[in-house]
Amino acid sequence: METQQQLDDFQARIDAGEKIEPKDWMPERYREQIIRMGSQHAHSEIVGMLPEGNWISRAPSLKRKLVLLAKVQDEAGHGLYLYSAIETLGVRRSELIDQYLYGNAKYSSIFNYPTLSYADVCIIGWLVDGAAIVNQTKLAHSSYGPYARANLRICKEESFHKKQGYEMVAKLAEGTPAQRKMVQSAVDRFWWPTLMMFGPNDSNSPNSAELLKWQVKLNTNDELRQHFVDRVVMEAEAVGLTLPDPDLKFNDETGHWEFGEIPWDEFWDVVKGNGVMNRERMKSRRKAHEDGAWVREAAQAYARKKNLSREKAS
Ligand code: FAQ
Fold first, then answer.
1. Which of 207, 208, 227 to mutate to test the pocket of ligand 1 (most atoms within 8 A of CB)?
2. From the alpha carbon of 38, which atom of ligand 1 is closest?
């Protein structure tokens, strides 16, 4: 039973900017929210390897292949940092993974879109990693210590991902007419799904109030989305690409770029599992997990053996 005094003391620690660490007292709902959000974040990083992984064997040069291999491996690492951070709350990683492979845990909607050309890989680096950074640099100040620290490490790598993506976009944008067409088509297809990554509008975001109160999230979904749009408009202009939104216009009074209505029906459809690639993505992840069962068993047997010999020696 949580007492009002415990809840007040907890809130006072949050308001004072203290980090909450695994062994500290916390409301059960705080624990549940970090597990929900952090594990969905981890699943997203893992599923997020698939769209770009699709192009590793078809990268246009050895250099591009090496960069892409390293980037996709980084995403796997991000998933592992996040699972480790969430496990500090007493939940097993295998349980979390089961929830998304065989249950109904979510992962980011953006990874349910296909990568039709190599330019899509470049656009993912620029826009998707760019959006992830806007979100995660804030989460690096989140109140839950292990989750904040995982995000700090992730951001350092994501910044590099974004730069390499933007560099490739710039190269294509100044290339042949066919290359320019290819990269513009990728922008056209990824623009709205990228804006959806920030989640529903604030008025439709049931988790935000609690997460903001506990400083798990430091900004609302709409604030971060706006911050991203303000940055990207200038970046698109610099490389001569057009963002596919006729309503995009600068508001002198607010100092922000206004943008058109996000296709929310499409967003909810994808979140519910009906996107173009949802089924394919889950099939690939389940297969990878099941094919890897022997590796997990071998690692566990090795760990048991090591523990046993340590016990005997002591
Ligand atoms: N997709 O009440 P809210 C990356 C769900 S990492 C799917 O607003 P909240 C790296 C939400 O879960 C990208 N579902 O939720 C990379 C909730 O459902 P639930 C992932 C979504 O938590 C780059 C319901 O809608 N980043 O890209 C989405 O306050 C390149 C109501 O929503 C993170 O996960 C969505 N887009 O705010 C990898 C960052 N949006 O659980 C490879 C951490 C919302 O109640 C290549 N997470 N939903 O059943 C967050 O910042 C937040 O969780 C939000 C959602 C902002 C995503």
1. 207
2. 43
Residue 196 C-alpha to ligand 1 middle, in angstroms? Answer: 9
Strands (E), the chain: 249-251, 256-258
Rounded to the nearest angstrom, the distance between the alpha carbon of 184 and the centre of ligand 1 is 26
Q: Strand, coil or helix: what is 245? A: coil
Quote the pTM value. Answer: 0.96
Cβ of 124 less than 6 Å from ligand 1:
yes
CA gap 188, 182 in Å, rounded: 10
Look-up of token digits 């990824």: 190
Instruction: Indicate if ligand 1 lies below 6 Å from the C-beta of 211.
Output: yes
Using a 6 Å cutoff on CB, does residue 221 contact ligand 1? Answer: yes
Segment 196-201 long-range contacts (CB within 8 Å, at least 24 positions apart): 196/109, 196/110, 196/262, 196/266, 196/267, 196/270, 197/108, 197/109, 197/110, 197/128, 197/131, 197/132, 197/135, 198/131, 198/135, 198/222, 198/224, 198/225, 198/228, 200/264, 200/267, 201/262, 201/264
pLDDT digits (tens, 9 = 90+) for 200-251: 999 999 999 999 999 999 999 999 999 999 999 999 999 999 999 999 999 9
| Farthest-apart Cα atoms in the chain, separation | 73
User: Ligand 1, closest atom to CA 224?
Assistant: 56
| Helix-helix angle 293-313:278-291, to 10 degrees | 40
Name the residue at shortest CA distance from atom 40 of ligand 1: 199
CB atoms within 10 A of CB 42: 27
